[in-house]
Specification:
InterPro entries: CellSynth/LPSAsmb/PSIAsmb, TPR-like_helical_dom_sf, TPR_rpt. This protein has 765 residues and is an all-alpha fold.
Length: 765
C-alpha cells in the first residue's frame, strides 16, 4: 500500500515537472515539435493529422518556410490546388534556397497560364543552379507555350547530351521541333523517346498528336493500332480510339470504345461523363440520361455526376427536375461550381438576368481560369442588350479556351447584331474550324458575308450549304439575298419561287419577291399576296403585307379589315397595332380607336393587346408621353415583350434629351427576339443614328432594305445616316431616287426639306 502511494506521488511529481518544462519551452521548440510530429505523420500516411501539426507550427511562426513547403506538398497530394499553390509560393519566397518549392511554384503558375510569374521563379532557380535540368525543361516548355520555339530550342541546347538520355526531354524536344515546323526532326525525337522508354504511354500519345496535326491518316491509324495492342488496359487508349472513330463519323465504334474505357477503369467517374457528353452531342439525350443515372448508382455522392444530370434535365426542358437536383447539390455542397453555374443559367432562363449576372460575376472571380462562367456572362449581357460587356466576357472565355466552338459562335452572333460583319465572319470561321459540321455557324458566316457585301463569298458558301441541306428555308433566303446583292435578280427570283413552294407564305421571302417582281405594280403585288394567303390562311404577317398594299391604293376599309385579321391571328404582332392606329388617324377615326381600346383596358387592366393598341393609337396621334407610359406598363407585365420594347425604344430615341442608353437596351431586346424583322432593324438603326454612331445605323437600315426594298421611311433614315457619316452626295442621290416617285409616306415633306439642305450644302446631322 505504501509502495503504491509512493509511485502515485512520483507520477504526480514527474507530470508536474513535464508540465513546467512544457510551459517554459520556447516558441521555437514548440514549432519544431509540431513540425517533427508532422513528418512522422507523413511517414505513416496520416495526411490530415500532418496538416494539423503543420498549421500549428505555422501559427507559431508564419515564416516557417519548411512547414509551408511540406503543407503545400500535402495539399497537392490531397488535390487542393489553390491551397497548395498558396503555400508553395510562400515557401519559395521565404526560402530562396528551396529550389523544389520554386520549381513547383513555377509549374503551378504555368498551369494557370501566368507565364510571366512562372518565368520569375524559373530564373530564381537558374541563378543558383544554371544547369538545373527541371528548371531548363520548364523554361523550354514555357517558351513553347509563348509561341517561341526558337528560344525553346536554345534552352534545350543548354541541357546538352542530357536530352538524348531522357524520354521526357526527347518528348519535349519533339514538340519544340514540331512547333518550329521541323517535322522530320520532330518525328525522330518522338521515336527516340519511345525507343528509350517503350512502356511510356505518353510518348506514343505525343507521336499520335503530332501525326494528327499533320493529318497523316496512315500513321495515325498505325499509332492507334500500336496503342491498342500495347496498352489494352489503359483507358486513354480507348478514349483516343473513340476520338478517331468519332472523327470518321462511326457512332457505334465510338460508343463501344468509350464503354471499353469504362470497363477497364470503372473507378474513374470522368469516363462516365465523357460517355454522357458523347450521347448529348449526338442528340441521343435519352441515352445520355441513362448513362448518368447509371453513374449515379455507382457514384451516389459524386457532385459532378449530379450536376451534369441536372444540366441535362435543364437542356431537355425538364426544369422542375433540374431545379430540384440543383437545390439538392447546393444544399449538400453550397460551393459546388457546376451547380452554381447551372443556378445562374436557370435564373437567366427565368428572366432574372440581373441575379444571374451577379452570380456569374462571382464565379468568374472564384474560378478565373474556367471559361464557362465567362461564356454565360456574355450570354446574359447579350440578353440585356449590353453588347460591349457581352463582347468583353466572350473574349475572356475565348482567351481561356480558344477551342470551344460555341464561344466563337455566340461572339459572331453578337458582332453580327451590331453590324461588325468582318469580325462576325472571323469568329464564325474560327467556330467552323473547331466544329465544321455546324450548319448554324455556317449560316452565320453566310449572313456576315451578305451583310459585309461580300456577295460572291456568300453565294459560294450558301450554295454549298444548299446542296448539302436542300430545302432549308433560312439557307435559301440568305442565298437569295446574296444574289440580290450581286445583282443576279433573276436567279434570286427563281430561288425565292422554290422557297415559297417549300414554305408557302414565308413573309420575308414574299416581301423580297414583291420588291423584285412587282415594283410599281400594287395590283400585281396584291394578287400575289392573296394567292399566298390562300395557301397559308393563318399567316398574320401576310395580312399585314396585304394591308400595306391596300392602303397605298387608298382602299382604307379593306386595309383595316386585313389589319384586324392580322391582329386576330397574332395578338403579339406589333405592326398590326401600329398600322391600324396610324390608318385610323389618317381616316379621322382616332377617337373611335382610343375609346375602343380604353374600354378593353378598363375591363382587362393587364390585357397586353388592349394596352398595346391604346399605346400605338396614342403614339400615332402624337401623344408620345402617354404612349410611353403604356409601353412601360406592358413591359412591367412582360419584360421581354418585343413589340412594346421596339416602339418605346423608337420614342425615347426620338426625344430631344432621350435616354439613348435605355433606347439601345430596348431596341436590342426586340432585335434578339426578332433578328430578321426589318422594322425592328429600322428602330435599332434609328437609335444608333441618334447616338451618332452612323456606321452602325447604316448597317441596320441597309439590312432592313434588303427585305423591304425602297421602303420610303427606312430609305429616308438611311439617307440621314449617310449624311451623318459625311456621305452627303450619296444621301442626296438616294433621296432623289425615291422622292421622284409618287410614293407617299409620313416623313415625305421632311425628306424633301432635308434633300434641299443637302443640295445647298447645309445639312444638319
Amino acid at each position: 500500500m505504501r509502495r503504491t502511494k509512493t509511485l502515485i506521488t512520483l507520477a504526480i511529481y514527474l507530470g508536474t515537472c513535464l508540465l513546467l518544462l512544457s510551459s517554459c519551452s520556447s516558441p521555437e521548440d514548440k514549432k519544431e515539435r509540431h513540425y517533427l510530429r508532422a513528418l512522422e505523420y507523413i511517414k505513416t500516411d496520416e495526411p490530415k493529422a500532418a496538416i494539423i501539426e503543420l498549421r500549428n507550427a505555422i501559427q507559431i511562426d508564419p515564416e516557417f518556410a519548411d512547414a509551408r513547403y511540406q503543407l503545400g506538398l500535402l495539399h497537392l497530394e490531397q488535390g487542393d490546388g489553390q491551397n497548395a499553390f498558396n503555400e508553395l509560393v510562400r515557401a519559395a519566397d521565404l526560402d530562396r534556397n528551396n529550389l523544389d518549392a520554386s520549381l513547383k511554384a513555377a509549374e503551378m503558375y504555368l498551369l494557370a497560364r501566368n507565364t510571366e510569374e512562372s518565368k520569375k521563379f524559373i530564373e530564381r532557380i537558374l541563378e543558383r543552379d544554371a544547369t538545373h535540368t527541371d528548371a531548363l525543361a520548364l523554361l523550354a516548355h514555357l517558351e513553347l507555350i509563348d509561341g517561341k520555339p526558337e528560344l525553346a530550342k536554345e534552352t534545350l541546347d543548354r541541357l546538352g547530351d542530357a536530352v538524348d538520355r531522357s524520354g521526357r526531354l526527347l518528348n519535349l524536344k519533339g514538340r519544340v521541333f514540331a512547333a518550329g515546323k521541323e517535322f522530320d526532326d520532330a518525328e525522330q525525337a518522338f521515336r527516340q523517346a519511345i525507343e528509350l522508354e517503350p512502356d511510356n504511354f505518353n510518348h506514343y500519345q505525343a507521336l499520335l498528336l503530332f501525326y494528327q496535326s499533320r493529318q497523316d491518316v496512315d500513321n495515325i491509324k498505325k499509332t492507334l493500332d500500336t496503342l491498342a495492342t500495347k496498352f489494352p488496359d489503359n483507358p486513354q487508349t480507348h478514349l483516343l480510339l473513340a476520338g478517331r472513330y468519332r472523327a470518321e463519323g462511326n457512332r457505334e465504334q465510338t460508343e463501344a470504345a468509350l464503354r471499353k474505357a469504362i470497363e477497364v477503369d470503372p473507378e474513374t467517374v470522368e469516363h462516365r461523363l465523357t460517355l454522357s457528353n458523347f450521347y448529348r452531342e449526338s442528340g441521343a439525350l435519352a441515352d445520355a440520361e441513362s448513362a448518368l443515372q447509371a453513374a449515379m448508382e455507382d457514384f451516389p455522392d459524386n457532385r459532378a455526376v449530379q450536376a451534369q444530370l441536372a444540366e441535362l434535365f435543364f437542356e431537355q426542358g425538364k426544369f422542375t427536375e433540374a431545379q430540384a437536383l440543383t437545390d439538392a447539390i447546393l444544399e449538400a455542397e453550397p460551393g459546388q461550381r457546376e451547380a452554381k453555374l447551372l443556378r445562374a443559367r436557370q435564373l437567366l432562363h427565368d428572366g432574372n438576368a440581373r441575379e444571374s449576372i451577379d452570380l456569374l460575376n462571382q464565379l468568374t472571380k472564384d474560378y478565373a481560369n474556367w471559361a464557362e462562367p465567362f461564356f454565360f456572362l456574355g450570354l446574359a449581357h447579350f440578353s440585356r442588350g449590353s453588347m460591349d460587356f457581352a463582347m468583353q466576357e466572350l473574349d475572356n472565355a475565348i482567351k481561356i479556351d480558344d477551342n470551344e466552338a460555341k464561344y466563337h459562335q455566340l461572339l459572331a452572333q453578337v458582332y453580327l447584331s451590331q453590324g461588325y460583319y468582318e469580325d462576325a465572319a472571323k469568329e464564325a470561321t474560327a467556330a467552323l474550324r473547331i466544329d465544321p459540321r455546324s450548319s448554324r455557324t455556317a449560316l452565320l458566316l453566310g449572313q456576315a458575308y451578305v451583310g459585309g457585301k461580300q456577295y460572291e463569298k456568300a453565294i459560294e458558301l450558301l450554295t454549298r450549304m444548299n446542296e448539302k441541306m436542300p430545302d432549308n428555308p433560312e439557307i435559301m433566303l440568305n442565298l437569295a439575298l446574296g444574289y440580290v446583292g450581286a445583282d443576279q435578280r433573276a436567279t434570286a427570283e427563281q430561288l425565292l419561287e422554290q422557297l415559297l413552294a417549300i414554305r408557302p407564305g414565308m413573309d420575308r421571302a414574299v416581301l423580297l419577291l414583291i420588291g423584285l417582281r412587282y415594283p410599281g405594280d400594287p395590283d400585281g403585288a396584291a394578287a400575289f399576296i392573296k394567292e399566298q394567303i390562300d395557301r397559308t390562311p393563318d399567316s398574320s404577317s401576310l395580312y399585314l403585307i396585304l394591308a400595306d398594299l391596300l392602303e397605298r391604293q387608298n382602299l382604307y376599309e379593306q386595309s383595316l379589315a386585313a389589319l384586324d385579321q392580322a391582329q386576330k391571328l397574332n395578338p403579339d404582332n406589333n405592326r398590326a397595332f401600329l398600322s391600324s392606329a396610324r390608318l385610323l388617324a389618317r381616316m379621322g377615326r382616332t377617337d373611335e380607336a382610343l375609346s375602343s381600346y380604353r374600354g378593353l383596358v378598363e375591363r382587362q387592366p393587364n390585357s397586353i393587346p388592349g394596352l398595346m393598341g391604346l399605346a400605338t393609337v396614342l403614339q400615332t396621334a402624337g401623344n408620345t408621353q402617354e404612349a410611353q407610359e403604356y409601353y412601360q406598363k406592358i413591359l412591367a407585365i412582360k419584360a421581354d415583350y418585343a413589340p412594346a420594347a421596339n416602339n418605346l425604344a423608337f420614342l425615347i430615341a426620338s426625344e430631344p434629351n432621350g435616354d439613348l442608353g435605355e433606347a439601345l437596351r430596348l431596341a436590342m431586346l426586340a432585335k434578339r427576339a426578332h433578328p430578321d424583322d426589318p422594322y425592328i432593324a429600322d428602330t435599332l438603326g434609328w437609335v444608333h443614328y441618334q447616338r451618332k454612331n452612323y456606321s452602325l445605323a447604316i448597317t441596320q437600315f441597309e439590312q432592313a432594305l434588303l427585305t423591304l426594298p425602297a421602303e420610303p421611311t427606312v430609305t429616308y433614315h438611311l439617307a440621314r445616316a449617310y449624311a451623318g457619316d459625311e456621305k452627303a452626295e450619296k444621301a442626296a442621290a438616294l433621296l432623289e431616287s425615291f422622292l421622284g416617285t409618287d410614293k407617299d409616306f409620313p416623313q415625305k415633306s421632311e425628306a424633301q426639306a432635308f434633300l434641299a439642305e443637302l443640295q445647298s450644302g447645309v445639312s444638319n446631322k
